[in-house]
């Protein structure tokens, strides 16, 4: 979605282009960017409605029986007549469209409904778990971006050198490794063999969620998430830095005798970073799926593991709310990336 | 492309410093920071594979007691007998056995400080029975026709029929009546995640999918527990639990027999084995033309090598099963109703019934092959192993068994046609397990008696035992039931699983028990943790 309707930066000519953004021009630009954001947000509404309707439709086709989930182990001793009574009481046999109507009506009045799998209000489930997911995803993204900038720059700086060869090879290999394999491997090495870091959880058994506890438990999942997301970013930074190092303005800077780090960091890197920002936005969906897998493996008490549980239990209200959140994250990610690029590079069209 | 000049020295340190900082954060964390916990024996940290869905007794939490958070009117002792908990004394039935009057304990308070009285008992049991609350324990209380508050300290239960083991229905946790004011499905009740009981512990914190923390109830009517805090960490993977137990993360937890054995010579730990009534049986549908034949079922009961299964699959931790009544309840066991391993007898029964061996070694009769399918829940390794062993024993006498591992949603609609590895069992009264499993009134009713076994003699003995108060007379009826069942077995009981646990040394108060089919940390060595104390 992002790549299709996103901005299309024209081939950069110089690192900075002063001039046209002064005074009235700057205000016009700000309005255009605001209009872009407005259009995208308006577009998001039908997308979200469609996505949540699709969740209910898929749920209706699910082979799992929500009444069995409601009963849990009690199902084995329950009489059929009692099970049928509960089925009627819970209204789980209502058509998906009717259930969707109930849910949508509740949503409009601010009531997200009740999660059957967690047996508590959906807002409580999200309220307890969203912060941990945000923490994990932001740290993971930070690790990925940091890795991309550091390794991408170093690799491009000496194309064909040993570091470049290692980074490229490992990067391509990592692209093919699913995050949960990486997670299990990391646990085997850093938690079980070396015993540097805890295996799983948010804190040690029986400890409160203090800063040092959470930090220690965050390192491994966040690193795994970051590393699993990094190869695309690293290879991208490397590639675009390579092309911008070949640009005239870089050659010009070199000719002026500027220091090498100045040439790379101030002249070549900025032009290489514009498409990078777009790419980071476009990676948000992978980040969300990656987080689901990493949270599962590390028993991280975030939203992603709730997705799995609610899907297995055909827990419509929670599943729909979580899907909406994920969709929203993707839309926002791409919007923020586009706004950032539009603000950074005045030549970028604001798709209207 | 311009020829890259060597990197100036200043760029390298900047980038390397960034990388090193990341690595440092990752590596600076100390291992096992919990060594200090060894000193504090007032805290107990356990690991368990099963996280409860809910802590609400109306949704089945701790249905057979040992709840920690709630009290029933009665509670179990180590010897499986009942003692008063929220009741002031053991209740007695009326002369016709159809009503039971319970006197209640005084001066009991819920965790929120509200006083406990008869209204709470009435509200809890009425909510369990009222379909509007969608309680999942309703079926097991179906004998209750009314609950009446006689006065604030007395409750009377009226039954639809005389039910001798009724005291066992009084171990369910009692909720405060205030939280039951509104009749609504219990998945909406705040009690699911923030329970308010009268029990020895209150819930301090529960991070779903990770761990639960209980803290001692200082005003507990039975005295403040000496173990002040219990943390239960949830870890489904057996090897993870074993590894983290060994690493010192936990003070105990359940492990499968083979893994538990590896702790037998580990300093500081002991392995606890509980005998159980937790049976595994090959349940046989009467609607299937092969399993519906009495000779096939009888022959397979002789053909299976139960001892061999226990030794090979359960590391010796189990007991052979022929009926739902285990040897661990010796007073009820009928010795003549036990099947021996006798392949020749199995072949004789089949030959006599006209099941003739074909060229491929599989028997047939009137053009029908002696073949059927056994389903087991996918992911349950014990049931899968037992199903495979059963299939190989059956093949040896000329009966072909095909195996299918499925989810419960796929199993349920096929239970009338295909056999199934079933497991359950309650150690407290034979009625609780045997009646729903084998009485014809439960035939095909949900997961109760799924094979629709119907045997008038079995029905008669089970009904008589249920309506008789005199204990000796009841034992006689249950022995009669077992003889009638063994003459025409409805299924092939294989084993009673032992439950094995690893427990760290350092506490006193543990008492061995016989367990049922339980999920979660309610039972196990910690069933009476409120009576434990740190070892001096």
From TrEMBL, chain A:
It is found in: Cell membrane. The lineage of its organism: Bacteria, Bacillati, Actinomycetota, Actinomycetes, Pseudonocardiales. InterPro entries: BPD_transp_1_N, MetI-like, MetI-like_sf. Residues 1-26 are annotated as: Disordered. The chain crosses the membrane at residues 41-61, 132-156, 177-197, 318-344. GO terms for cellular component: plasma membrane. This is ABC transporter permease. Keywords: Cell membrane, Membrane, Transmembrane, Transmembrane helix, Transport. The keyword Cell membrane applies. It comes from the Bacteria.
From TrEMBL, chain B:
Pfam families: SBP_bac_5. One of its GO terms (cellular component) is ATP-binding cassette (ABC) transporter complex. The keyword Signal applies. The keyword Transit peptide does not apply. GO terms for biological process: peptide transport. Residues 1-31 form the signal peptide. Residues 82-441 form the Solute-binding protein family domain. Keywords: Signal, Transport. One of its GO terms (molecular function) is peptide transmembrane transporter activity. Belongs to the bacterial solute-binding protein 5 family. This is Solute-binding protein family 5 domain-containing protein.
């Amino acid at each position: 979605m992002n790549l299709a309707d996103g901005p299309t930066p024209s081939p950069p000519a110089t690192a900075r282009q002063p001039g046209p953004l002064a005074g009235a021009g700057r205000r016009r630009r700000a309005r255009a960017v605001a209009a872009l954001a407005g259009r995208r947000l308006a577009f998001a509404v039908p997308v979200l409605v469609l996505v949540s309707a699709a969740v209910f439709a898929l749920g209706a086709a699910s082979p799992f029986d929500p009444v069995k989930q409601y009963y849990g182990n009690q199902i084995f001793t329950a009489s059929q007549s009692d099970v049928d009574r509960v089925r009627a009481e819970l209204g789980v046999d209502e058509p998906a469209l009717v259930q969707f109507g109930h849910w949508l009506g509740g949503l409009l009045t601010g009531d997200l409904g009740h999660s059957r799998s967690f047996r508590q209000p959906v807002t409580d489930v999200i309220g307890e778990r969203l912060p941990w997911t945000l923490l994990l995803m932001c740290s993971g993204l930070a690790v990925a971006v940091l890795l991309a900038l550091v390794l991408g720059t170093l690799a491009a700086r000496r194309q064909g050198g040993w570091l470049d060869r290692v980074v490229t090879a490992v990067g391509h290999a990592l692209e093919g490794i699913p995050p949960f394999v990486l997670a299990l491997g990391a646990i085997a090495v850093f938690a079980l063999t070396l015993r540097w870091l805890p295996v799983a959880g948010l804190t040690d058994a029986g400890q409160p969620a203090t800063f040092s506890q959470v930090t220690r438990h965050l390192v491994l999942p966040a690193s795994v998430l970051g590393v699993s997301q990094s190869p695309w970013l690293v290879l991208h930074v490397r590639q675009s830095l390579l092309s911008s190092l070949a640009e005239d303005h870089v050659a010009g800077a070199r000719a002026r005798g500027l220091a090498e780090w100045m040439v790379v960091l101030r002249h070549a890197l900025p032009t290489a970073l514009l498409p990078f920002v777009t790419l980071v936005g476009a990676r948000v969906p992978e980040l969300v799926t990656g987080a689901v897998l990493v949270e599962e493996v590390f028993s991280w008490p975030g939203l992603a593991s709730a997705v799995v549980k609610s899907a297995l239990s055909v827990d419509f209200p929670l599943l729909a709310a979580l899907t909406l959140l994920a969709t929203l994250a993707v839309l926002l990610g791409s919007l923020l990336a586009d706004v950032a690029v539009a603000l950074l590079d005045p030549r970028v069209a604001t798709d209207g | 492309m311009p020829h890259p000049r060597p990197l100036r020295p200043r760029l390298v340190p900047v980038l390397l410093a960034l990388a090193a900082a990341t690595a440092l954060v990752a590596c600076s964390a100390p291992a096992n920071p919990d060594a200090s916990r060894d000193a504090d024996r007032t805290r107990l940290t356990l690991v368990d594979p099963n996280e409860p869905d809910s802590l609400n007794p109306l949704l089945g939490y701790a249905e057979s007691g040992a709840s920690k958070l709630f009290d029933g009117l009665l509670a179990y002792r180590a010897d499986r007998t009942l003692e008063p908990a929220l009741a002031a004394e053991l209740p007695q039935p009326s002369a016709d056995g159809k009503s039971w009057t319970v006197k209640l304990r005084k001066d009991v308070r819920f965790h929120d400080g509200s006083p406990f009285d008869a209204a709470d008992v009435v509200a809890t049991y009425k909510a369990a029975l009222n379909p509007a609350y969608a309680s999942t324990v309703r079926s097991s209380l179906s004998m209750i026709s009314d609950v009446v508050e006689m006065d604030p300290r007395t409750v009377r239960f009226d039954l639809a029929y005389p039910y001798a083991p009724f005291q066992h229905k009084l171990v369910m946790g009692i909720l405060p009546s205030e939280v039951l004011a509104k009749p609504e499905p219990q998945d909406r009740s705040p009690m699911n995640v923030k329970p308010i009981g009268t029990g020895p512990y209150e819930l301090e914190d529960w991070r779903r999918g990770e761990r639960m923390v209980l803290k001692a109830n200082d005003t507990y009517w039975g005295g403040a527990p000496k173990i002040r805090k219990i943390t239960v960490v949830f870890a489904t993977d057996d090897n993870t639990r074993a590894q983290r137990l060994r690493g010192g993360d936990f003070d105990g937890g359940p492990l499968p027999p083979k893994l538990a054995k590896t702790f037998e010579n580990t300093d500081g730990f002991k392995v606890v084995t509980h005998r159980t009534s937790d049976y595994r049986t090959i349940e046989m549908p009467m609607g299937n033309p092969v399993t519906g034949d009495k000779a096939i079922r009888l022959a397979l009961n002789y053909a299976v090598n139960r001892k061999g299964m226990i030794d090979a699959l359960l590391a010796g931790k189990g007991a052979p099963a022929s009926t739902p009544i285990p040897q661990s309840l010796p007073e009820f066991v009928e010795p003549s109703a036990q099947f021996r391993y006798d392949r020749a007898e199995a072949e004789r029964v089949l030959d006599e019934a006209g099941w003739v061996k074909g060229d491929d070694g599989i028997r047939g009769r009137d053009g029908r092959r002696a073949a059927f399918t056994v389903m087991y829940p996918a992911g349950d390794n014990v049931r899968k192993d037992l199903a495979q062993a059963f299939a190989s024993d059956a093949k040896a006498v000329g009966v072909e068994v095909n195996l299918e591992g499925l989810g419960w949603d796929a199993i349920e609609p096929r239970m009338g046609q295909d056999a199934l590895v079933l497991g359950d069992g309650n150690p407290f009264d034979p009625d609780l397990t045997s009646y729903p499993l084998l009485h014809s009134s439960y035939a095909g009713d949900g997961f109760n008696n799924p094979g629709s076994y119907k045997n008038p003699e079995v029905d008669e003995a089970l009904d008589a035992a249920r309506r008789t108060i005199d204990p000796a007379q009841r034992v006689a009826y249950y022995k009669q039931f077992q003889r009638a069942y063994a003459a025409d077995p409805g299924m092939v009981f294989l084993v009673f699983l032992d439950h094995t646990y690893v427990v760290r040394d350092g506490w006193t108060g543990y008492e061995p028990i016989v367990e049922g089919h339980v999920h979660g940390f309610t039972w196990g060595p910690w069933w009476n943790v409120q009576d434990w104390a740190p070892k001096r």
